[in-house]
Specification:
six-stranded mixed sheet, 9 strands, Rossmann fold, globular
Length: 252
């Protein structure tokens, strides 16, 4: 049974950032739930590693000048074998992503948009409010086209390696759209950065779902195998190891 780690964006990307990236690259059988509320909530409202630039808080009274982390992109950069995003106010999707994380063998990284109603209320409302959700959020489904909009009349098409928003009309159909593939590492990187790339001319919806999943041996399994292989050649002598090869005889 794998271990669950529940953490905030500040703890896992600032104080514990080093632990996070090395856990992911080593691929322990651990599920990381990163609750991202774009603020330090438990310590009374300072800006966090995911706060937007110019964020006014108690620790940045004239606005933060820090460039924020993109947690999903960071996880991909650390070679995580499972990277996904969901939100607290969509319980059905949240449940689906938690189950996917639990079933993954290896390090899973699930970013959860969480509203902080005390220090950063409404930060993700545009993605959860029924009036705007259909236009501002797009849900990734493996082997399905990227479609969004209140009337399901918009989609994402790839022009080379550059995404573009298109209208589904007589000239463009679902067959022309980007088909999501959870095994495609390179397109996953485009998806994680689709909304914050200044080189993209269109306004894009925020992707939610599984960006990427792959299989790789877990660290603990490799470690146990290495120990078994070493022991199969014969057990060592700890006293001999501690003594080493260079010894002195003290003459009285």
């Amino acid at each position: 049974m794998s271990l669950w780690i529940v953490t905030g964006d500040g703890d896992s990307l600032s104080i514990g950032g080093n632990h996070t990236i090395h856990l992911l690259r080593r691929n322990f059988d651990v599920n990381v739930l990163l609750f991202n509320n774009e603020i330090y909530g438990l310590t009374k409202g300072q800006y966090s590693p995911t706060s937007e630039q110019r964020k006014i808080t108690k620790s940045s009274p004239v606005g933060s000048i820090d460039h924020p982390f993109n947690p999903a992109a960071l996880a991909l950069g650390a070679d995580a074998t499972f990277v996904a995003r969901t939100m607290d106010r969509d319980p059905k999707h949240l449940q689906e992503m938690l189950l996917r994380s639990a079933h993954h063998k290896g390090s899973s990284f699930l970013e959860i948009y969480q509203n902080c109603n005390i220090f950063n209320d409404g930060a993700f409302e545009i993605f959860t409010d029924k009036k705007t959700k259909s236009e501002e959020a797009i849900f990734l489904v493996h082997d399905q086209p990227l479609i969004f909009g209140a009337e399901k009349n918009k989609g994402i098409r790839l022009n080379g390696l550059k995404p573009e928003v298109v209208e589904l009309d007589g000239n463009v159909s679902e067959n022309d759209l980007w088909i999501h593939d959870e095994k495609d590492f390179y397109k996953a990187q485009i998806l994680t950065r689709m909304y914050d790339d200044p080189k993209l001319s269109h306004h894009f919806p925020r992707p939610f779902g599984v960006f990427y999943e792959t299989e790789r041996p877990c660290y603990e399994n490799i470690m146990h195998q290495q120990i078994n292989d070493a022991q199969s050649k014969g057990l060592g002598d700890l006293d001999k190891l501690l003594r080493g090869r260079e010894v002195w005889t003290i003459l009285e």
